[in-house]
Amino acid sequence: xxxxxxxxxxxxxRERVLAVAATLLAQQGYAATSISQICKAAGTLxxxxxxxxxxxxxxxxxxxxxxxxxxxxxxPIITHTDLAADADQMTRMFEEKPEFxxxxxxxxxxxRDGDPAILEAARRVRHLAVERIATALEPSIVLDDRKRxxxxxxxxxxxxxxxxxxxxxxxxxxxxRAKTRALFMTVATGMLAMLDHLTAxxxxxxxxxxxxxxxx
Length: 216
Hints:
Number of helices: 10
Shape: elongated
Distance between the termini: 55 Å
Low-confidence stretches: 1-8
CATH architecture of the largest domain: Orthogonal Bundle
Structural class: mainly alpha
Largest sheet: none
Mean pLDDT: 78
Oligomer: single chain
CATH topology of the largest domain: Tetracycline Repressor, domain 2
Radius of gyration: 21 Å
Order of helices and strands: HHHHHHHHHH
CATH superfamily of the largest domain: Tetracycline Repressor, domain 2
Helix content: over 70%
């Protein structure tokens, strides 16, 4: 049995490696970031990284998923109550934790023809994002048909993810807090407008159309 101290040290080292790899990837991109660089910055050996993650691609996939969980756990629930406060919180998040989307976009584009571990991780990350956003939105949809409410929340969540992608790219090209906040006011407004539209559409459907939808 391993000693408790060694087990704890291993967990701490793993977190340190993930944090260092995330920083280097965000700064340099996939191609310019080597395992030796990560080892030097994290104070560990290459064998430890390969033992824990299997490959360079496996390490970077783990980085991407770790960043995603942290990001979406902190994402505000967009409501009509205080749109400005929601936009402010999203602005702070993208100023303080920009690595997640940069990692996902850069790695997915750079490695689309390489090891499938990166693309598989990107798909899991986007699935996680849609599920987290949809779960947060669903309680605000006032419909008797909860299955339809769930479908609407997922559709809006997928739309929101596309808006986040666009806002992130725009922020990299034209930075600045005021412009970033304006971008996220647009994101929040667009999400709520779509949510309201789909909810109103669901309420106005005739019984015959609802029955047809259920058969599908």
